Amino acid sequence: MIPLVATSVFVGAGLLSSTLVFLSIKVAHRFNFLDNPDSERKNQDRPIPKLGGVAVAIAFTLTVLVVLAVGGRSDELILSLSVLIPALGLAVVGFFDDHRNLNPYFRLLMQAAFGLLAWLLGTRFEVTGIAVLDALGFVVWVMLIVNGINLLDNSDGLAASTVLASSVGAAIIAVIYGQTLVSILALALAGAAAGFLGHNWFPARVYMGDAGAYFLGFLLAVLAVRLQPEQATVVAGVAIAILIVLLPIVDTIYVVTKRLADGIHPFTAGRDHLSHVLQGNGRSVPGSTLLLQAVSILGVSGAVAIAVASR
Which of 28-32, 118-122, 227-231, 262-266 has the lowest mean pLDDT? Predict the structure, then answer.
């Protein structure tokens, strides 16, 4: 990809995202779409707008469609819809969850349904060679990453910075292997996350909500799978996918394992994530976020190294 094009995609998505997130803050205050503090998990000192994820979804979608349309990439424009349609559908589910607090099993069902839709629309991996098992594995993968990003959305800037680091890594690998559409999607996602992060860094002025977490998590899951260079072995491809999204996987495994060990239902909300552990040991919110991003950067670096070695 031409550096000027790559820069334009990233910067354009970032500026559009930042602008739309700023406007979403105004809209959220106007219509009382706020995340209110409580005595348990939500310990912010004031109500915080939670329409930021909707703004990010719009910014990402517009950026991708405009870039592909202006570049005359009609085939890739149509192919991008196979990713955008289920991603936006899942964002709608997240939006209603933000507004009405949907049943957790229904949320999982919707995540599985949109994961299956993405599979049917062409985002696939071949690990076992058995179509049904690979489809099931992909659906589980989507659910894991979507909920992983949602679980990481517990401290200012944590989920957004994770998406930023992972999508930059995905963009680098896509460029290495000449996967133009994947690189455009990854750069647009990185830019959109960066634009949001400017408003979400501590102290946050806006939250992404489940709409944003579902949307961003789904895109990361898809991008990780789309990074399938023909030269790489199945093992290398799986390793790249896991390392690109290492932090949400590690945090999810930690939380679920700890809750099960303590006899607590995994769906129970609580302040028992890695970020909370660090903050309980004296780290500030920004400090814990930056420290955890070392895990993301380590994973991304490993993924890039494997990609280079597999060329």
Answer: 227-231
Residue 204: DSSP 8-state? P
Phi-psi region of 209 (alpha: psi -120 to 50; beta: other; left: phi over 0): left
Per-residue confidence (pLDDT) for residue 20, from 0 to 100: 98
**Residues 17 and 44: beta-carbon distance below 8 Å:** no
Tens of pLDDT, residue by residue over 55-84, are 999 999 999 999 999 988 889 999 999 999
Identify residue 15 by its one-letter amino acid code. Answer: L
State the CB neighbour count (10 A cutoff) for residue 105.
9
Q: Which residues, including other chains, have CB under 8 Å from residue 193's CB and lie 6 or more apart?
A: 17, 56, 160, 161, 163, 164, 167, 216
Q: Which two tokens stand for residue 68?
A: 């592909």
In this prediction the pTM is: 0.96
Q: For residue 38, what are the CA distances in angstroms to 213, 254, 267, 275, 298?
A: 21, 25, 18, 19, 35
Q: How do residues 243-273 score in pLDDT, each as one tens digit?
A: 999 999 999 999 999 999 988 988 787 888 9
How far is residue 136's CA from residue 116's CA, in Å, rounded to a whole number?
8
Give the residue extent of every domain in the chain: 3-228
- How far out from the chain centre does Cα 137 lie? 19
189 closest CA partner among 8, 58, 62, 13: 13
Q: Can you spell out the DSSP letters for 59-83?
A: HHHHHHHHHHHHTT-HHHHHHHHHH
First vs last C-alpha separation in the chain = 17
